Each structure stands twice: as C-alpha cells, then as structure tokens.
Amino acid sequence: MSLFQTLRARFKKLTKKKKILLLLLLGLVAIFSLAVGFYLGLNGNFGRILSPIGTLLENKPPEPRDFPNPINGVLYTKSEAAKWKDRLPLAVVIENHTDARPQSGLSKADAVYEVLAEGGITRFLALYLAEDSILGPVRSNRTYFLDWLSEYRAGYAHIGGSPEAQARVKEFNISDLDQFFLGAPTYTRIANRFAPHNVYTTTDKLRGAADSRGYRGPVKLESWLFKDEESSASARPKKFELTLKFRENAPYVVDWKYNREKNLYLRFNGGASHIDKETNSQLSAKTIIVQEVIITPDPSGHSRIRIKTVGSGPVRIFQDGKVISGKWKKTSRTGRTRFFDNKGAEIAFNRGQIWIEIIPAGSPVIIKKN
C-alpha cells in the first residue's frame, strides 16, 4: 500500500471532530508559511523561502555577469569565466579562398583580423579564448600575423609559411603550433575537400598540443576599452552598409550590412551570406575596425606582401550603425594597437565579436546609409 493510501485510510478512521482539528492545523501551518514568506520578501530576502513544513530552502539569485573577456569585452558569470580565464589564447590562420568556404569556427572567435595574403585573396587571423570549435581550413604563416598575435601572447596555429616568416617565429619566441611538426592527430585532412584547402583542427586539440609543449596560460592581456551598446533600436539607423574591395572581382568583395534590431553587422563575401560551416549561421560583428596600413611588395620578388604594422594611420570604427573616424597607433612590434577619435580620445567598443579589416592605405570604403 502506498503512503498516500495509508494516510487516506487513517484519515477516514478519524472522528469528525478530529478531522476538523487536523484540517485547521494544516491551514494554520500554510498561513504561517505564507506570512513568513511575505515578510522575507518585503525585507529583500527573496533568496530564502519557507516550505510548508517550515524548512528553509535556498533559492539563489542568478550569477551576475561581471567578468569581461579581455579580448572583446563580452561579460560572463564567474563560473563561466572559470573555464577560460587561465587559458592560453589561440591565434589561428584560416584561409578565404573560394574553395575554402564555408569555413569552420569563425563565428566562435573573440576577434578576427582579415588581411590580404597574396593575389588579392584575404586570410583570417582568428583569436580564441572563451569559445571552442572545429577550425579550418588552416593555412600558412605570414610575418605580419606575428606582430598582431604578439599583442595577445597567443599560441600560433598555422601550416608552415614563408622562409622569412618561419625564421621570425623562432626569433620572436612565438608559442608555435605549426602543423609541420605537430601533424596528426592535432591536425587532420578531411576527405570532402581538396588540398590545400582541407586541413582542420580544434581548439581542444590545439590547447592539448600547447600544454604538452609547455605553452600555458594565463597571460596578461592589455584590453581595449569597452562600453554597453545603445539600448534604443529607434535611435539607430534603418540602413547602414559598408563595402570593402580587397579585389575587384566579386568573390573577394566584402559587404557588411547593419541589422538595426540586433545592433550588429552581417557579413557577405562575394555577394553571398558568409556562413560558418559548424553553426550554419551567418558571420556577424558588433564592431568593425577598418584600419589603413602601408602595403608593399615583397622585395624577394615573390607574390607575397609586406605590411607596416608599427606606427600610425587612418582608421574608421563602425558600430551602433555609425562611423567614427580617427587614427590607429602601435608603438612597438609587441605593443597593443590602440584606436583614437579625431579629438585624441581612445574609442570604446561594443561588447561582442570584433572584426579588424586591414586594408591598403587610401583604399575606398563604400558607405551606404538610410
């Protein structure tokens, strides 16, 4: 016989007077519990609630989100941040050849640099600290990537590289995660894509390889300034688009189109939505930095290029459906690149994924509003 059936049978055996007394007693207990709960509520003790039998139960409030990601300012709870705060950041070279699309893992990056490699084709240097993903296709090292990843003290994932770039990895004491010496299982070639567009890895595999080589976090990161985004959608423009022509032909034209409701920019490459293969979601950014740099041909005669990463130059920051013009400054190879408005004040960015578009000085940036 169940407990309920037993209690029901015993209740039926009680006299009418005892039944009334029992029901009155239970009613008083319920009223007392409600009164105490109401009193605690008035005194701000919402986290402590009395059960009907007087036992105190803990009803913990949600954890505050007050731990910022040092790369892009996104706020995490203390327990969420505990998973990544001691990690070594990762910098991964991912290609953008048409045969490499859609890529894996770009939507999970904290920040992404896009820059010309050679032949008018761009590559990405994607930074990972807080999120995890499959990554690829991974491609080769270039010297200018070293100057940006050094700002994050990041482990560097790539597949070989130019002789000069490879020599600089050793000279600069980079935490090197080169596929040439790590091989499988850290890096694998997938069967449904042709070489050289088929080498993939994961954040977990790279962190395991880094740990085995003695490359460990945490590292001290010099953060940019961040701000809370504007909350009123009605104050935002209905339309805002920018176009970057890394190469005149369509496959390498980049468009960013502003989404007023979500206050972010959606990425299009070659006229098509740029999708992450792993999430099947369109790539987007909360802030887009368009940084103009001096680009010159490689004096060795190869099709590679050289980029002046140290110094200063024009910059435009796109966020909240607006553009801020100013200047970028980087005082040393490992120093943090900083961004200032035309009055000399450092620019604060919206919290969220940041894209840094590195373009040749004087290149047109086409803007369409409303």
From TrEMBL:
InterPro entries: DUF3048_C, DUF3048_N, YerB-like_sf. It comes from the Bacteria. Pfam families: DUF3048, DUF3048_C. Residues 84-216, 244-356 form the DUF3048 domain. This is DUF3048 domain-containing protein. It comes from Candidatus Woykebacteria bacterium RIFCSPHIGHO2_01_FULL_39_12.
